[in-house]
Write the structure tokens for this entry.
Amino acid sequence: MQVRILGCSGGIGGDLRTTSMLLDNDILIDAGTGVSDLSIDQMIAIDHIFLTHSHLDHIACIPLMVDTVIGLREKHVTLHATRETWEILKEHIFNWKIWPDFTAIPDAKDPFLRFSEIRIGETVNMAGRKITPLPVNHVVPAVGFQIDSGRASLVFSGDTTTCDALWEAVNRIENLKYLIIETAFGNTEIKLARTSKHLCPSLLMEELNKLLRPAEVFITHLKPGEGDEIMHQIKIATSAFDPKPLQYSQVFEL
């Protein structure tokens, strides 16, 4: 099983792309601007999209991708999300005002975009690839994900601030290998980090100290233009964990 990073920035500009990961060739984990780098054939191959939450940097390419492939494949696309996230997308995106309602095209009985509800702690088994929503703490309803091949697990925090429940779940993962966790702001913006329910290096240090299992740690969602400084602060605060910045096109084998 392979996870490829399509985007891992907190914004855009130059070669930056927002959050998305491709699991093998048929599953997206979030669908930020990095999805636009895929070829049309690669988009046609995607059967499932798992969403952490409804913010634009994590969903930006869903409407455009669905519009691109709808006439090129017969099978529907399934969007796996919490009930709250689905309702936000229905109200604010797929509403005919911002974008066509692909949950009613070609008709409501046989829609091209279909919803499958996910719940924290309930594993979805995709042909042996197990995806489990994890609790996180953000300004909108959100989840993280454990992606488990059986041999090893990758945990992706999605967007979160401090959250004891996340670490309680992570510490139960016996085959944990990789941890991808966000840090959106530097320490000078800790007030903004708390308000927007993101992490900064000092808060990240508090969170990583709750991790009781060994794992390779990667940092995602760095603020554009400030990534080097934020990583410098992270290295000082959390050197024992040897965190590394997540990279575009990075591949994880599970």
The chain has one domain: 2-253. Helices lie at 40-44, 56-59, 62-69, 83-92, 164-170, 190-196, 201-208, 227-237. The mean pLDDT is 97. Residues 2-253 form a domain with the Metallo-beta-lactamase; Chain A fold (CATH 3.60.15.10).
